[in-house]
Design a protein that fits this description.
Elements lengths: L1 E7 L10 E6 L5 H4 L11 H8 L8 E8 L2 E9 L11 H15 L7 E5 L10 H15 L14 E7 L5 H26 L7 H14 L3 E5 L1 H7 L2 H7 L7 E7 L8 E6 L1 E5 L19 H15 L5 E11 L11 E3 L5 E3 L7 H16 L3 E6 L4 H6 L4 E4 L3 H14 L3 E3 L4 H4 L9 E2 L8 H9 L8 E5 L21 H12 L1
Parallel strand pairs: 1-6, 2-4, 2-5, 5-6, 9-11, 9-14, 10-11, 13-17, 14-18, 15-16
Antiparallel strand pairs: 3-4, 7-8, 8-11, 12-13, 15-18
Helix pairs in contact: 3-4, 4-5, 5-9, 8-10, 9-15, 10-14, 12-15
Length: about 500
């Protein structure tokens, strides 16, 4: 379902929509809120709310049909709670999930136009433009459905009209443009991830990224296996050995016109299918392994969005892309790999392959790009699901300012992170007797943290943060997601980079 967001300065009740949406505080006056519709219907909103015991409590949503003039329309009221928000409740997320519920409610109904009365921004502790931007982003995200291979896919399209006063119309239009760019970056990332692995091999991934980034004005360079061998990228090549699919290594660069701008490197893991290699996964764990390239998909879509938003910061997106398969020449437990920066690792588990390809990518980025900060994004560990659950990404870094900035960006966007403990004690777990390090920690404890300890060997002195997005990349029970990919980290890092630029 395609969702298009428009701005209107018409009177709310005059908009010809099939659904009208209002956000109301607890204890709202039904007659006052609905007075513009009183002359158009005999329906008693007050009596209906009383019967349904809807008072505007936080997280409550009620949707119902009403005879309005000579047509039937739907009303949707989203409760945002009282003036004082309960402890543990994020009012901004109430706004997002409420809007997600509204869009989902249009499915299966003959609704082509939805009118949304923009609520008082002070309720959500956001500026007016940010309220509009968030509603826009969520509306478009909630409409996403991956139906490429459905023989009878329904191509429904709806228009969401943001109702604002005339004095704020221009600001609202700019906000919807920004929100649309962010949402498109999220949804395109989801399309990459949801695509079946036979249709998203490393070569196909590289071709799609090159075409997409070229359209965004970003130059993307692609290395093949021969070039990677010349550079000593044996982490990527070692993982690729078991697959008949050729690996690729991508570097995309967006340069702002601003003089003296800082450079942020975003490094994404790109395993287009992860069988586990020789240490093969159980069959039930493989179904979503087409999504093991979510980090790589994210960083290039983030770069394109920032280019469209004309961010005043330089962005470099880097991704090592390969399959991890148990072929006749596959890497074996006990092998030793020498990476781009000369360090070596003992392979104790071929299913811990993401850190091997990232080792080459991170060390190459430090050596050739020399960024001011570097953030890697990876569906790295199954342990992450147990560490933070489905509603956060795990954040690991020794840099407090960088971690705090990422946490704030997560709170602003709803694409949240949780910082895990990280001390020298964890780093001891990846020692090896025959190489510089082992690719898994001893005892399999704190796997998310020990994976980060491995990666740190390849970041040099660059301020660095690691985002493990394995906990929230698929099938998250939130109203504005659907079954499948979530595009996790995209909203977070677009917001982070824009604020970093300031």
């Amino acid at each position: 379902m395609e969702v298009h967001v428009k701005v209107s300065a018409e009177k709310f009740s005059s908009v010809q929509a099939q659904m009208y949406v209002m956000f109301v505080q607890e204890g709202f006056n039904a007659e006052k809120v609905c007075k513009d519709f009183a002359s158009k219907t005999t329906f008693s909103f007050k009596d209906y709310f009383a019967e349904m015991e809807f008072t505007g409590k936080v997280k409550s949503v009620v949707t119902f049909p009403v005879q309005l003039d000579n047509r039937v329309v739907h009303f949707s009221f989203v409760g945002v709670g009282g003036k004082v928000c309960p402890v543990g409740i994020d009012r901004k997320e109430i706004l997002r999930r409420g809007m997600g519920s509204v869009i989902k409610a249009t499915r299966g109904k003959k609704i082509k136009d939805v009118a949304v009365l923009i609520p008082d921004e002070s309720i959500f502790e956001m500026e007016f433009e940010k309220v509009v931007e968030q509603l826009t982003t969520i509306s478009i995200m909630a409409g996403y459905q991956y139906d490429v291979f459905m023989s009878k896919a329904t191509k429904k399209s709806i228009n969401v009209h943001m109702i604002v006063s005339k004095e704020f119309k221009k600001d609202a239009q700019f906000a919807t443009e920004c929100g649309t760019i962010v949402a498109q970056a999220v949804n395109t990332t989801r399309e990459y991830v949801d695509t079946p692995p036979a249709h998203m091999t490393p070569v196909i991934f590289a071709e799609k990224v090159v075409a997409q980034t070229k359209a965004c004005g970003i130059k993307t360079t692609v290395f093949d296996a021969k070039k990677m061998a010349q550079l000593g990228m044996n982490g990527v090549l070692g993982v690729a050995r078991g697959s008949v699919q050729e690996p690729r290594f991508l570097v995309g660069e967006y340069k702002t016109a601003k003089k003296g701008a800082k450079t942020i490197a975003l490094v994404g893991k790109g395993i287009t299918f992860d069988s586990g290699g020789i240490c093969i996964k159980p069959s039930g764990s493989m179904l979503t392994m087409k999504g093991d390239m979510a980090g790589a998909a994210a960083v290039f879509n983030i770069a394109c969005a920032l280019a469209s938003l004309k961010a005043q910061v330089n962005i470099v997106a880097v991704a090592p892309v390969t399959e991890n398969m148990p072929g006749p020449d596959a890497q074996k437990p006990g092998d030793i790999v020498r990476f781009y920066n000369g360090k070596t690792a003992e392979i104790k588990d071929t299913d811990a392959e993401g850190r091997l390809v990232l080792a080459d990518a991170l060390s190459y980025t430090v050596d050739k790009i020399k960024p001011d900060i570097m953030i890697d994004v990876a569906t790295l560990t199954g342990a992450c699901e147990y560490a933070v659950g489905p509603f956060f990404s795990a954040l690991i870094s020794e840099h407090d300012d960088l971690s705090e900035s990422l946490s704030l960006a997560g709170n602003r966007t709803g694409d949240r992170v949780w910082r895990l403990p990280y001390t020298d004690d964890y780093k001891e777990a990846i020692k090896s007797n025959i190489a510089d390090m082992a690719n898994i920690g001893s005892g399999n404890k704190a796997g998310t943290v020990t994976a980060a300890a491995f990666l740190q060997h390849f970041v040099g002195d660059v301020p660095w943060a690691h985002l493990d997005i394995a906990s929230g990349d698929f099938n998250i029970p939130v109203s504005y997601f659907d079954v499948g990919s979530t595009g996790v980290s995209v909203r977070l890092l677009i917001d982070f980079c824009l604020h970093y630029a300031k």
